[in-house]
Write a structure and sequence with these properties.
The complex is a heterodimer of chains A (about 250) and B (about 450). Chain A has helices spanning about 20, 35-45, 125-130, 135-160, 165-180, 200-205, 210-220, 240-245, and strands spanning about 45-50, 55-60, 65-70, 75-80, 85-90, 95-100, 110, 115-120, 180, 190-195, 225-230, 230-235. By secondary structure, chain A is an alpha+beta fold. Chain A is globular. Chain B has helices at about 5-10, 30-40, 60-65, 70-95, 110, 115-130, 150-155, 170-175, 185-195, 215-225, 240-250, 250-270, 285-295, 335-340, 355-370, 375-380, 390-400, 425-430, 440; strands at about 45-55, 100-105, 135-140, 160-165, 200-205, 230-235, 275, 280-285, 300, 305, 310-315, 320, 325-330, 350-355, 375, 405-410, 410-415. The interface of A and B includes residues 89 and 158 of A.
Chain lengths: ~250, ~450
């Protein structure tokens, strides 16, 4: 079961907060286009929250009061069916916006897969600031679209792709978001952390766990993947992986 | 049970796994309506899928499809090809919408198809609809045809729930209904399935069967309890064939039939089972019993179930697809079915669109059969319809009220537990199409 949200660092100084100046995702966040002075204004109304592993950031059906921008960690988006069964509808990584649709009842719950951190912006503040800063409004609209695009892409993923294509597409997108190059293994080699369980991945891809294991094994046997562990995957060539998202050539 | 109820025993009412029943279907509703409806399914909307193999065994399939090969497995493979083709077609129309929460193999699938073929179907479903570990895979099993190896293979495929059509343990009764099998064999079958991970076993028994006596029926119930199935279904074994029906309407048989559901209720509840819906007994910790307590139980084409899906899609000959506002049945003739599937046309034969009033009636019937009560006023409000639309139904209900088969107070209709075997008769009062079924209309 998820534990309650832990509020951590909360800063209200008149200087740029440390977490902002060292922020890895600032260019993706709502504050990306703001000057340092504007950011100091904004940070009076926002907070950076440490999120414990397993805790719930947003509960399904609750009214969405805050926009969260992930700065650290990995999150899973899940929908609980009426019989208690859960279904993974997506994942959230640094730079992702969670809870963009203000005031609406959330379609899903959001849980931290590892200890993480998010910047939390009250929607009521964002509405006010949007009026003053066109850039904030633009980013909110763009990311509302991104949320819809993600849902649409998930539907396409499940509707048109073979089991191998589904797994390849998932890994390719994951590397696009949080992958790290491995120049020592080749110019196109990457590694990516798997913070989510195999079961979560299988559920997201609408596959049986056994099928997911079989496909990963196929990828390893074919040489596309160098290493597959519980928490990490290393691939030899992103280009080759991309090919596998398109065809089911075994 | 009261003697006045006897006259209602003869009422062979429909099972109401759908409303309208097939009597309310029209040729005008078919592929186009289904195709349109599939495009309106929500992204993560729960879906139940069932694969229909309406054949007793491989030889029956062979005859039905006028197969030109003497190899029954080759014939089965051809049928699997048709099934997978329809699976891919329907999956394509869904375009990634919906989420499969249950997959059921109806008919005697494992006795017609090899487990390898069943694996092919599961792979197709996984690809076309998505199939996760949390989806419940269930199957109807003919205990007479099951081997230890088959149980092992089915367990390995991820089967989690089975329904065993036993009917009765008494050799005389078994002979009379043409279903001879020993108690020890059924016990071994259940042990084998449990050993391979199938822990949800539903044992189906029948009442009103020829040669049943008060003692033999009580013995059958005790034997069933000794096998400790998760669930026991007690179906009305009234035979549809006229000759058998004649033997069963004899006065002494009728008295026994009147007693049997009550006998079952006493023996099974004493053994720790809970009454669920109109014909199920489930152990307290089962999903079905829990769903019954929270009124989350459903009654649809797949019978009483705790699945969250309100959409049932039917694959295979004569299978029906069910939505709250649409019912479409696949061709029941194998030639027409094959001809459509091979041309990638939805093999729809007939169906029904449900008006608001139809949906109101469907909801009341489902509530009565799954929970034995229905808040008629609330349901009318849900559909924004006046109670007056049910005037005819209440006329019929009045007769049943007079003999105590149902009570109605403050908008709430309730079927007493001792009358649950007559729930179908109460439900039939709300069936607008009942007059179309000539042999039924006299009873109600």
């Amino acid at each position: 079961m998820a534990t309650t949200l832990q509020c951590g660092t909360r800063t209200t100084l008149d200087i740029l907060p440390v977490f902002c100046s060292s922020c890895q995702v600032r260019e993706k966040s709502v504050c990306g286009d703001l000057t340092d002075q504007e950011l100091i204004d904004l940070q009076r109304n926002m907070s950076s929250i440490d999120v414990e592993k397993g805790s719930t950031l947003i509960h399904q059906d609750d009214e969405v009061m805050h926009l969260f921008v992930v700065t650290h960690g990995s999150f899973r988006l899940l929908k609980v069916l009426e019989d208690g069964r859960q279904q993974i509808t997506g994942f959230g990584f640094p730079g992702d916006y969670i809870g963009v649709r203000a005031g609406a009842a959330s379609n899903y719950s959001v849980e931290a897969l590892v200890p993480g951190r998010v910047c939390s912006f009250p929607h009521v503040t964002l509405r006010r600031l949007s009026a003053q800063h066109q850039s904030i409004q633009d980013r909110l609209i763009r990311n509302a679209d991104t949320e819809l695009t993600k849902a649409y892409n998930h539907m396409v993923l499940l509707g048109q792709k073979t089991v191998h294509e589904r797994v390849a597409t998932f890994l390719y997108d994951l590397i696009g978001q949080i992958g790290k190059p491995r120049p020592q293994d080749g110019h196109d080699a990457y590694e990516v952390a798997l913070d989510m369980s195999r079961r979560d991945i299988a559920d997201y891809l609408a596959l049986r766990s056994e099928t997911l294991s079989r496909v990963l094994k196929d990828f390893k046997t074919s040489g596309l993947m160098q290493e597959v562990t519980r928490h990490k995957v290393t691939i030899r060539s992103l280009g080759q992986l991309k090919q596998r998202t398109l065809t089911d050539a075994l | 049970m009261k003697l006045e109820w006897k006259s209602y025993l003869a009422a062979e009412t429909p099972a109401y796994t759908s409303y309208p029943t097939s009597h309310g279907f029209s040729d005008a509703i078919g592929a186009a309506a289904l195709e349109k409806r599939l495009s309106g399914v929500g992204q993560y909307e729960p879906i139940s899928l069932y694969i229909n193999s309406p054949f007793e065994n491989a030889a029956t399939l062979q005859t039905a499809t006028h197969s030109d090969t003497s190899d029954v497995h080759e014939t089965a493979r051809r049928y699997v090809k048709l099934l997978t083709r329809q699976i891919f077609h329907v999956g394509q129309l869904l375009q990634g919408r919906g989420r499969l929460t249950a997959l059921h193999f109806a008919g005697a699938a494992p006795h017609v198809l090899l487990h390898k073929d069943l694996g092919v179907i599961l792979d197709a479903v996984e690809m076309a609809f998505g199939l996760t570990d949390s989806a419940i895979v269930s199957m109807d099993i003919d205990t007479r045809l099951v081997s230890f190896e088959m149980a092992e293979a089915l367990g390995a495929l991820g089967l989690s729930r089975i329904k065993l059509g036993v009917q009765d343990f008494d050799p005389d009764v078994q002979k009379a209904i043409g279903r001879v099998q020993t108690f020890s064999h059924i016990g071994e079958v259940m042990n084998a399935f449990r050993r391979f991970g199938v822990f949800d076993i539903n044992l189906e028994l029948g009442y009103g069967l020829p040669r049943q006596t008060k003692e033999s029926f009580a013995r059958t119930l005790s034997l069933a309890v000794s096998l400790s199935p998760e669930c026991i279904t007690l179906r009305n074994g009234a035979a549809p064939s006229p000759s058998l029906a004649a033997t069963q309407t004899q006065p002494d048989t009728l008295s026994l039939r009147l007693e049997q559901p009550e006998t079952a209720r006493h023996i099974l509840t004493a053994a720790g089972y809970e009454c669920v819906g109109f014909d199920h007994f489930a152990k307290t910790q089962t999903a079905l019993a829990k769903a019954a307590q929270t009124q989350a139980i459903k009654y649809n084409l797949l019978g009483l179930n705790a699945d969250p899906a309100r959409i049932v899609l039917g694959i295979g000959q004569a299978a029906v697809s069910q939505f709250d506002d649409l019912l479409v049945q696949n061709h029941s003739g194998i030639d027409a079915y094959i001809s459509c599937v091979e041309r990638d046309i939805l093999p729809a034969m007939r169906g029904a669109t449900l008006s608001r009033e139809d949906r109101l009636r469907a909801r009341i019937i489902e509530a009565l059969l799954s929970t034995l009560n229905a808040n008629i006023l609330d349901i009318c409000n849900d559909f924004d319809l006046d109670l007056a639309v049910l005037r005819n139904a209440f006329g019929k209900i009045e007769m049943l009220r007079n003999v105590g088969l149902v009570t109605y107070k403050d908008g709430k209709m309730l079927i007493p537990e001792e009358a649950r075997a007559f729930a179908n008769v109460v439900a039939a009062c709300f069936d607008e199409n009942l007059s179309k079924i000539r042999h039924l209309s006299y009873a109600i």
